Amino acid sequence: MILILKQRRWRCTNPECLYEMSESFKFVNKQRRTTNAADMLIVDAYRNLLETSAFIAKRFHVSDSHAHEVFDLYVKLDRLPLTDAISIDEVHLDMDGDCRYALIIQDFHTGDPIDLLRSRRTNVTGSYFVSILTEECRQVKYLISDMYNPYIAYVKKYFPNAVPVVDSFHVIQWITRSIDSYIRQLIKKYRQRDREYQDKLSFEQQSLVTLPPSDEVYLLQKYRWLILANQSNIRYRNNPRMDAHFHALMNTYDYEDALFRMDSNLWDFRDLKEKYVQFNSCNGGNPIQARAEITVLVQEFKESRQEIFRDFVSLLEKYEDPIINSFIMVERIGNGKIYDARLSNGPIESMNRKVKELKRLGRGFRNFEHFRNRFLYATRSSPVLNGVTDYNPVAYYEEDDF
After folding, report:
1. Do both 14 and 24 map to the same domain?
2. Per-residue confidence (pLDDT) for residue 355, from 0 to 100
3. Helix H segments across 75-214?
C-alpha cells in the first residue's frame, strides 16, 4: 500500500515568538519514505529462500542495498544448543579461498540447523568446537556423518560421550558408484569396438559410414538403472511396448534379461547389491541383530568372485561400528508429529539443497555472515533475532496523542 501523508505545521502568531511545531506520526519516523513496520516486513520476507534481495526491495519500494542493510541490522543469529543427536555435512559454497566447503551442523531431532561454519578445515572447526563448553559437548551421544574420516574423528576430539554414525545412504552409494563405474567402462569398450568397425567400413566403401548405436551401448546407456536402482523401487511392466531400436515388443523383464545375457557380472552385481539393500532396510532399532547379519554378509562378499564386493568388505570392516550405530532409532519431530526414526544424514542432505538453491538464486554471495544469517533465518522453525531489540515495528497510539 502507498500512503500519501500530508504533515501539518503550526506557527505562533505572536511576531515576537513565531514558534513552529510540526505534526508527528508514530508509525513513521522523520525523513523516511517507509513506515516503521516496513523494516520488519522486509525482514519477514527474507524467510522465503526463493525471494532475492532485489525482489524484496522491489516489492517494498526500496533499494537493494537498503533491504540488505535492514536484514543485517536485525538478523544476527547465534548457534543453537547442541543436542544428543547431531548431523554434520559439508556443502560447496566457493565464496573465496577460505570458504570453499562450508560445514552444516544440524539437530537430528527437529531438523533445525544448529550452525553454518564458513569452512570444514581444521583451523576453523577446531577452534569452534573447543570454544563450546565441555558440559554441552558431553551431552552429544550420536554424531551422524558420511564416511569422511575427519568427521568421524570429531568424536574422540570433541565429544567424549558420543559414538560415530555412518549414514546408510552413503554406504549403498559406494556400491552403486562402483557398479556404475564398471558399466561406464563397458560402454567405453563397446564404443571403441563400434568406432573401429565403423572406420573399417568407411575404408572399405571409400565413404563415411555412420552406424546407429550398437545393442550393447543402447542397453547400457538407457537401461543401466535396472542394475543400479533398488529392485523394490522398480515398477516392472508386463505389457510389452514397441522398442524403436530393436524393432520388437519388449517389457521391463526383456530389457533386464538382455543386460544379463550381455555380461553375466551384471547379474552378480545386482544380486549382491540387493542383499545389502535388504539387510539395510531391516533391523531398524535392533543393532544387535544387524551386527550378526552383517557378519554373514561380509563372509559372503569375501567369497564372491567380484572384486568390487571384495573391496566392499574392507569398507564394511573399517566402518562396522558406525554402520551398526545407524540402526539405532531416536525420536524425531516433523509435520507436527513425534515418531521414531533411524539415525541418518537424510535430513541434512535435503538442507544442503536449500543452501545450493539460495546460492543459485542469489547469483553468488561475497559476505559469508550475511549468507549464514539468511540461511539460518529461513530454515529454522522459530528463529530468534539477536540484532537490534529496541525497535517496535507496530506503534499503537490514541487519537489524543495528536
Report:
1. yes
2. 86
3. 122-130, 134-138, 149-158, 168-205
Pick from 215, 249, 266: which residue ends a domain?
A: 266
Which one-letter DSSP state was computed for residue 335? Answer: T
Domain of residue 307 covers 270-325
Helix axis angle for 252-262 and 264-281, nearest 10°, is 120
- Asked if residue 2 is part of any domain, the answer here is no
* pTM tops 0.90: no
Q: Say if 172 falls within a structural domain.
A: no
Alpha carbons 39 and 73: distance in angstroms, whole number: 10
What are the residues whose beta carbons fall under 8 Å from the beta carbon of 6, sequence distance 6 or more? none
Residue 310 shares a structural domain with residue 343: no
Angle (CA) 125-129-132 rounded to 5° is: 150
Could you say which DSSP state residue 33 is in?
S
Contact by Cβ (8 Å): 261, 223:
no
Residue 14 makes CB contacts below 8 A (sequence gap 6+) with none
pLDDT digits (tens, 9 = 90+) for 201-238: 888 887 777 888 999 999 999 999 999 999 999 999 88
- Dihedral of alpha carbons 59, 61, 66, 71, sign: negative
- Same domain membership, residue 48 and residue 125: no
In the numeric block, the cell 541383530 is attached to 289
Cα 392 to its chain centre, rounded Å, is 36
User: How many domains, in total, are found in the chain?
Assistant: 4
